[in-house]
């Protein structure tokens, strides 16, 4: 198969492939992690950061300007950077963004693709930005591997080869450089490992090569020394500070940032300050320190910190789940309407709000699952996701390391019933079964306004009538919404029930819910009605009975 151009579409495909490959290699990279702190999270942090970069690029409207996609990757990486390795990765993506932006402005009409010259220039610029963010280059780290990859890319371009060979040459040089890191840094030699960050960089370069050529490089697995040796390194060869501190810093000038760097270097180590890439003025700040409060106060002295993250470094080896999700389980609810979004989010769900101009796609579902940032996800489709898209999205998510449990909720009222019994302290299979049972136990229907004269199972209807619908059949014809809603509630309560839930759609007067509440109070002793204005489109009312 012929090699692809590194255009906007291919760059997006690479970011997706890079996340997938990092998921595959996260555990391997984490096991290699003994420098600068043996906290076994380098792979996890690179995955978090690349995932954030991908999400930003994936959310872009269609564009053929590769510089726009590169800029989105850089923004996402900077704002989602985790750990020392994440900050470094953000600077590598920033280098690509700056090199392509300059080429795009020079072309006068946008940049359609990256060639070997620009790719080599981006790697060389990345070396400069990474060293600048770290303050110094330590031999035997990801910086060394990056330098060797950049040099190989420059040689390959000078020899006149095409982009795929430039990328392949850089990846092979990175692999050779990675093997040498063990002998370049004492802590790596004692543990018998290569540099974890360098291994992550090799994953990214190999993913780029595979994206361009459809041929995957074969690399031997990087295995650490026997546990006893590695444990000795982790036990005392590198004395780790207590905390990793990260935050975004705004309202700071260059002089203030340099003062901050000096203060942080006095407080701890692994200081990295990445400059903003998108004009937002937000620097990404990272440090390992015993006094986390002082590290944050240092930022307050020169600017305004936000998105502050403080993580204990001691005793955290292996504490994070494989794949790097920040929480164990979440509920993803697909909803329609601003009020529905607020309602489900208020009950603790991560929300995917639909756009009625386009059906929910597997890609949108995958995007929402990744952004939910959990290793397990219970999905409430609520009748808004076609079965084939739901299956495709769940299958893709499972390939990214997310355990997905679709809950058969055919309406938002069923989704609310399921969400009410969600308990993430139970095993996923138990939680999913309990939620599914609650959804199934919520009998539901809807009310809409007739737009034409027609014959229904409940008789003739005329424009303006209210139609009570259950099971895709019109069972009630009323003079208006209230009459149809009251008739449908009577029908649903005929088999018993204690709680009636009414969701009112866009344009429905609030008096409708009040009138239905009075009807239930007068006609159904012991039953209670709760109503929410969700603002959904389509059916005027969604009604459920439990």
Structure, briefly:
With 546 residues, this protein is of the alpha+beta class. The protein has helices at residues 8-32, 42-58, 66-80, 83-107, 116-134, 142-158, 163-181, 186-191, 196-213, 227-237, 254-267, 292-300, 338-346, 362-372, 387-399, 412-420, 428-440, 481-493, 510-523; strands spanning 6-7, 113-114, 243-250, 268-274, 283-289, 304-312, 327-335, 350-353, 374-380, 403-406, 443-449, 454-456, 459-461, 466-470, 473-478, 499-504, 528-533, 541-545.
| Structure summary, number of beta strands | 18
Unreliably modeled segments: 227-238, 315-323
Strand order of the biggest β-sheet: 15-14-11-18-16-17
Oligomer: single chain
Main sheet: strands, sense, barrel: 6 strands, mixed
Structural class: alpha+beta
Distance between the termini: 58 Å
Percent strand equals 15-25%
User: What percentage of residues falls in helices of 4 or more residues?
Assistant: 40-55%
Gyration radius from CA atoms, angstroms: 28 Å
Overall geometry comes to: elongated
Mean pLDDT: 86
Number of helix segments?
A: 19
Layout of secondary structure:
Blueprint: E1 6-7, H1 8-32, H2 42-58, H3 66-80, H4 83-107, E2 113-114, H5 116-134, H6 142-158, H7 163-181, H8 186-191, H9 196-213, H10 227-237, E3 243-250, H11 254-267, E4 268-274, E5 283-289, H12 292-300, E6 304-312, E7 327-335, H13 338-346, E8 350-353, H14 362-372, E9 374-380, H15 387-399, E10 403-406, H16 412-420, H17 428-440, E11 443-449, E12 454-456, E13 459-461, E14 466-470, E15 473-478, H18 481-493, E16 499-504, H19 510-523, E17 528-533, E18 541-545
Parallel strand pairs: 7-8, 7-9, 9-10, 16-17
Antiparallel strand pairs: 1-2, 3-5, 3-6, 4-5, 11-14, 11-18, 12-13, 14-15, 16-18
């Amino acid at each position: 198969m012929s090699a692809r151009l590194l255009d906007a579409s291919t760059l997006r495909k690479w970011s997706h492939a890079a996340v997938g490959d990092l998921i595959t290699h996260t555990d391997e990279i984490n096991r290699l992690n003994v420098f600068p702190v043996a906290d076994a999270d380098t792979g996890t942090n690179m995955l978090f950061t690349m995932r954030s970069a991908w999400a930003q690029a994936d959310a872009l409207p269609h564009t053929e300007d590769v510089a726009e996609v590169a800029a989105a990757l850089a923004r996402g990486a900077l704002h989602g950077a985790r750990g020392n390795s994440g900050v470094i990765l953000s600077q590598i993506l920033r280098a690509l963004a700056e090199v392509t932006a300059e080429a795009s402005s020079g072309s006068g009409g946008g940049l359609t693709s990256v060639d070997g010259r620009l790719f080599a220039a981006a790697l060389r610029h990345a070396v400069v930005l990474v060293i600048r963010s770290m303050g110094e280059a330590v031999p035997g780290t990801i910086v060394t591997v990056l330098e060797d990859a950049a040099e190989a890319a420059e040689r390959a371009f000078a020899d006149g080869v095409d982009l795929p060979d430039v990328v392949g040459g850089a990846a092979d040089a990175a692999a050779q450089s990675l093997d040498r890191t063990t002998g370049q840094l004492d802590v790596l030699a004692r543990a018998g490992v290569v540099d974890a960050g360098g291994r992550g960089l090799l994953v990214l370069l190999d993913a780029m090569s595979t994206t361009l050529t459809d041929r995957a490089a074969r690399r031997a697995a990087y295995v650490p020394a026997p546990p006893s040796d590695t444990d000795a390194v982790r036990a005392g060869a590198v004395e780790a500070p207590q905390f990793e501190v990260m935050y975004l810093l705004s309202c700071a000038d260059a002089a203030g940032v340099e003062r901050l760097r000096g203060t942080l270097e006095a407080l701890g180590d692994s200081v990295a300050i990445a400059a903003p890439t998108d004009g937002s003025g937000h620097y990404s700040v990272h440090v390992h320190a015993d006094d986390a409060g002082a590290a944050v106060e240092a930022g307050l002295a020169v600017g305004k910190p936000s998105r502050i993250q403080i993580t204990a470094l001691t005793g955290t080896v292996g504490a994070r789940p494989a794949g790097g999700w920040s929480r164990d389980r979440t509920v993803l609810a697909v909803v329609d309407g601003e009020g529905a979004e607020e309602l489900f989010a208020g009950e603790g769900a991560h929300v995917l709000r639909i756009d009625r101009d386009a059906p929910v796609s597997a890609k949108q579902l995958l995007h929402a699952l990744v952004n939910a940032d959990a290793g397990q996800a219970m999905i409430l489709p609520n009748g808004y996701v076609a079965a084939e898209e739901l299956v495709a999205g769940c299958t893709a998510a499972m390939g990214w390391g997310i355990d997905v449990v679709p809950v058969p909720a055919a309406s938002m009222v069923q989704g609310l019933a399921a969400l009410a019994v969600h308990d993430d302290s139970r095993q996923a299979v138990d939680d999913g079964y309990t939620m599914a049972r609650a959804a199934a136990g919520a009998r539901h229907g809807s009310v809409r306004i007739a737009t034409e004269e027609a014959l229904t199972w409940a008789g003739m209807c005329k424009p303006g009538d209210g139609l009570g619908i259950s099971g895709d059949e019109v069972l009630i014809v009323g003079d208006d919404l209230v009459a149809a809603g009251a008739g449908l509630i009577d029908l649903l309560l005929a088999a018993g029930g204690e709680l009636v839930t009414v969701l009112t759609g866009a344009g429905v007067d609030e008096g409708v819910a009040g009138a239905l509440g009075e009807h239930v109070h007068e006609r159904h002793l012991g039953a209670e009605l709760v109503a929410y204005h969700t603002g959904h489109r389509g059916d005027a009312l969604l009604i459920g009975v439990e």
